[in-house]
Design a protein that fits this description.
Layout lengths: L1 H12 L1 H9 L6 E2 H8 L3 H13 L3 E6 L2 E6 L2 H10 L5 H7 L5 H6 L1 E3 L2 E3 H13 L3 E3 L4 E3 L1 H9 L4 H5 L7 E4 L6 E4 L1 H12 L3 E4 L2 E6 L1 H11 L5
Antiparallel strand pairs: 1-3, 2-3, 4-5, 6-7, 8-9, 10-11
Helix pairs in contact: 3-4
């Protein structure tokens, strides 16, 4: 087990491979060419790094036509990468994110398959205050009221519970240093928000744009004011 941990740490610790893993936090699959551009390296070098990550079962690869697409082999890997950011001392983190592009990332972003940032934490606070979810010793649970609430949104809670993955859990937000919700329920909520056009993705970033419709819905359902 110790040697396996050392191998994983060594794989993720390489700068190019760390860039690959961070890029995949967008939740989409990328080609080797796209990842080479992001990591500012050659196609030959990115191929070597991708092979190592696939062999370690950290990444999975799918072939469509002439292209191969790389993504995390399972969702837990994305959660582990996001959690690692919380190891950065808070003062250092503040310095690193003080750029023109990062305020939007801090405000509202995707954390692989769920919502994070200031808005994600505010939504979680609202769910707790409304007793839609309950915090029991840092374990999140959905209440009966919550099951009805999510059903009204068109989310099949029972179906999500039957999936072979975490249903609902707290995820420590690296910019807010507080929890937002993660798991299949949080992923379903994010999908609902996209489909209902409450939020939209931004190009080449995990930052999320909240539409005017989304502003009204977030305030009406969560009392979250994003203006």
């Amino acid at each position: 087990m110790e040697n396996q941990f050392k191998n994983i740490a060594s794989l993720i610790g390489d700068p190019v491979r760390a860039t690959i893993m961070w890029t995949l936090m967008d939740g989409k699959a990328f080609t080797a060419t796209e990842l080479a551009i992001t990591a500012d390296t050659s196609p030959q070098n990115i191929s070597m790094h991708l092979t190592k990550l696939v062999n370690a079962e950290l990444l999975a690869v799918e072939t469509q036509g002439r292209h191969k697409y790389y993504k995390f082999s399972r969702k837990e890997i994305a959660y582990a990468i996001e959690a690692m950011v919380n190891l950065i001392p808070h003062t250092t983190a503040l310095k690193k994110i003080n750029t023109e592009d990062t305020p939007a990332i801090k405000h509202c972003r995707t954390c692989y398959d769920h919502l994070a940032g200031k808005v994600g934490v505010a939504i979680t606070d609202s769910l707790l205050e409304q007793k839609i979810i309950i915090n029991s010793n840092n374990i999140f649970e959905i209440s009966k009221k919550g099951e009805d609430w999510f059903a009204d949104l068109g989310i099949d809670v029972q179906g999500l519970k039957e999936q072979r993955r975490s249903f609902l859990r707290p995820c420590l937000d690296w910019s807010e240093r507080r929890h937002h919700i993660a798991g299949s329920l949080a992923a379903a909520l994010l999908d609902k928000m996209f489909l209902a056009d409450w939020i939209r993705r931004t190009k080449n970033s995990r930052a999320i744009i909240i539409t005017s419709k989304g502003q009204k819905e977030l305030y009406g359902r969560f009392k979250v004011n994003v203006k």
